[in-house]
Amino acid sequence: MRNIRNFCIIAHIDHGKSTLADRLIEYTGTLNKREMKDRVLDTLELEQERGITIKLQTARLKYQYTKQYQTSPIGEYTLNLIDTPGHVDFSYEVSRSIRACEGALLLVDATQGIQAQTIANVVKALEYDLKVIPVINKIDMGNADIAKTKNQIKEILGFNENEILLASGKTGVGIKEILDAIVERIPPPKSTNTLLRALVFDAFFHEFKGVTALIKVVDGEIQNNDTLCLLSNQKIIKPIEIGFMTPKMQSTSKIQTGDVGYIATGLKDIKDIGIGDTITLGKEDIVSKVMPLPGYTKPKPFVFASLYPVDSKDFLKFKNALEKLSINDSSLTYEKESSQVLGTGFLCGFLGLLHLEITQDRLEREFGIDLISTIPSVEFKVHLKTNDYTKVPNINISNIDTKTNIAKIRTAIEFPEKGLYDKVYEPWLQINIYSPEEYLGQVMELCQQHRGIYKSLECFTKFNNSRYISLLYEIPTIEIVTSFFDKLKSITHGYASMDYSFLEYRESDIVKVNILVNGEVAESISFLTHCMHAEKKARMVVEKLKELIPRQQFKIPIQAAIGNKIIAREDIPPYRKDVLQKLYGGDVTRKIKLLEKQKKGKKKMQMIGKVNIPKDVFIQIIKLD
Questions:
Q1: Which of 99, 319, 330, 542 is the most exposed place for a label (fewest CB within 10 A)?
Q2: What's the pLDDT tens digit per position in 548-557?
Q3: Full-prediction pTM beyond 0.85?
Q4: Please, are residues 424 and 507 in contact by the beta-carbon 8 Å criterion?
């Protein structure tokens, strides 16, 4: 156990975590040159395609330490690396990684300096008493400013200059120094008990080995023939295989105290195992004595959207896919719901818009299901006037607090009609925006446009000849779930970053905007918004729909309405057939007769015709600013 070091890599998005992990794996000879590739720990197709880390990944490295340093003797060390995402939407992955480690490499890009997620991740690491090793990455870049980045790390994060390491994940500079620092500075794992206790910090579904749990053995050890037990539900497990991620699965005979490994449980029901659970030996006298390890606080979803299979025959396939994905992504929540227009689907909760987009992409690619998503929304609270909940259609009774008569509303479909409620409460966030000072006016204007309330402003040391500012705002959640982050990046040319946390619910004037296509309400495109934005957003949606919905043989009216009041309208003109083409003369009444006949036919088609909205229309509307 003295020769084990467990560490994760934390940083803001695009600061080079995955590239640095490649160099660590390469330097220690964990994979040979034939097995190596760029971003080797980004195993998902989407991760490789988008260039971002979505899932935490582990790798067991063997390092021959050649220096003599106080309590770290010369010899071979086992380094358990956990690579983490950087985007704020995947912060739950970071918190789980941190809980399984004793130390962390903090990467700061020499060309960008400290960003919002840099600070947020350091705070998380210090909360769990991790030893943090600051590393300035990308020192080989032409615009790298090492001296000023060091000053930022010292002034903002409080590290001493002699603690800061310099590295380049691209060229491999400083990799040996980082590995030596991991051995020297990060403490070995400690054990306080001889009884087996292993923390489940992640899991995935293996086609042949069932539910596979990634675990850290806190106390005791696991033998490959042991019978194990999950403390939360007393489920007995007879593992098919135990082993280490190198980063591929490699079986072993035992996993010792302090080690990070996996257990292929053979379980087929993914609900049997939970993230944050404790595993011990499956003996009654031991189970009764073991205290469960501190688990994880379930993350609260910020964004809600309903997902429906395009083909209703795919519902069971979709359900199984969601279940399998949810064990690999424990921040995803879902519950079954039905729509008269879209059929049966699931109302899903996400940590952000990128999380929604990634989840839908993974379901479609990994499981081969075509999906339709409703417009993203957040969880509102509505105070109902009536105690007779049968009068409130589409609302989920389980989401109503009968003592206060307050219902949780997550989609436009559930929102009650005017007269059935008197107050609506919306969630607010506290956001911290970190940006160069030159963009201060534009950033503040953006926040004001999205109903933000200014709280504080701090200035930091110069970086790349410009001062950096930290803005603290309170802002409604619904204002930032769609394009706020993209607009922030755009006006600051990519230099700003943002972190957020839930604040409270506040009373607000929220309205439901129904979108009607050919007189029928399109539930999946209807949305909830603040009354001050309702007309503007409604016009944008109907104008976009006019562009996207294919023309028919009859005129298609597209309307936006609040209650019975139409607030925006566009018409898709019909295809026109020249019925007069065959006429070459005669009385004008012949022409009038044919035109009237055509007019009646088009009117009849409009009455019985149904407009099918293509799937890509939903995606374009979701991304609409």
A1: 319
A2: 888 777 788 9
A3: no
A4: yes
